[in-house]
Amino acid sequence: EVGASVLLLRACLVLLAFPIYLLSFLGVWEPFCRKVFFPFLLDKIVTVHDKKSKKHKEELFSNLPDFRRPSGELRLLEIGTGSGSNFQFYPPGCKVTCSDINPHFQEGLTKNMKKNQHLHYEQFLVAAGEDLHQVPSGSMDAVVCTLVLCSVQSVSSTLREVLRVLRPGGAFYFLEHVAAEHSSWKYFWQQVCYPTWKLVFAGCCLDRELWKDLEAAKFSELKVQHIRLALPWTPIEPHIVGYGVK
Predict the structure, then answer these.
(1) Sorted alphabetically, which keywords does the UniProt record give (predicted)?
(2) What is the chain's Cα-based Rg?
(3) CATH 3.40.50.150 describes domain 4-245
(4) Which string of b and e fits 184-221 if b means at least 16 CB within 10 Å?
């Protein structure tokens, strides 16, 4: 249950962000956020996050080539590609299908595709993680998802789709921010920021315990590591990183 001090501080944040709440009430904020504000803001945050997470991502994706087919082909689907900041970590010749629920990342995406010409880009799908019906079952060797499971409508439905599109023996890679220890100050501030953060950051939830969803998803093998990424002045320090094999 939410304590009185959390509710009081939440109310202060609502006052500070009142123009955004008003625009949201008038139905103006969401389209503006999706088209302009969120792609711009995410670009800035991802730049900082990428610096902090680079070594973790290099380590995470280092075994991607192990999941190639006998033919040597590696087909990869990225859910929530955004502007494509993960492309640099994928092995040469990898066939990439990009998907995102928000089609307004074109500028950053084009820039990163030009930078990473060691990859083959197959297609771009405007799709939610919970509904990847354009992707045939068992057609992917790897699925990647970074900083996306915080904002999908349903984590369990998204993981069901991940397992459906993966071939047996294929791998799902993730790096996500998660809820802090419940007894910590970090968790207290996650609770305070939750409603305003979710509104400003296009549905991003601060308190998801995603390792529990991953454990419930029935991967044949699952490696989850809890790490901290120091992102000053943000409530998203605790992360999990790892992969699951179908």
Answers:
(1) Membrane, Transmembrane, Transmembrane helix
(2) 18
(3) yes
(4) eebbbbbbbbbbbbebbbbebbbebebbebbeebebee
